Amino acid sequence: MNKNPNAASQGDPNRNAGFDAIRGLGYVFILCDDIDKMKRFYQDLFRFRIEEETPGLMVEFRVGSLFLGLRPRGRHYDGPRAPKQSASVQLSFRVPPSDVDIAYETLRAQNIDVIEPPTNQDWPHRTLYFRDPENNILEVFADIHVQETISTPSGVHQLVES
Fold this sequence. Notes:
four-stranded mixed beta sheet, globular
């Protein structure tokens, strides 16, 4: 018996038809309980440009080459909302290294709770974590030189081997 479940279709050029053509991610939608509150948060804090909006139904922001959309939860396939203390998604926004600390000061000035202040991680990123009004995790990060990581490792996110 062949243990590879894809072995039978590996010679089939159409086995992933349509999916093999993917060349990028076009947009991400966050399902919202309060779309107006979420719109204000993302527009006021990040100053993203609204590309398209149908009030109360959908907002699309331009974020570089990607669209970040908000829409109300409620379609039959959306499922139940995440428990109050659970995140549904983590979004990560890349900035230049010095801007991680500037973003942190902006959050503090606006009294937005920070999950983790600017930290040089054990991989070559400087990160800042916080939440949006519906508890999704947001990360502002910068690529840093590996030497910065080695010289001041945080130890915060090291995996523990069992």
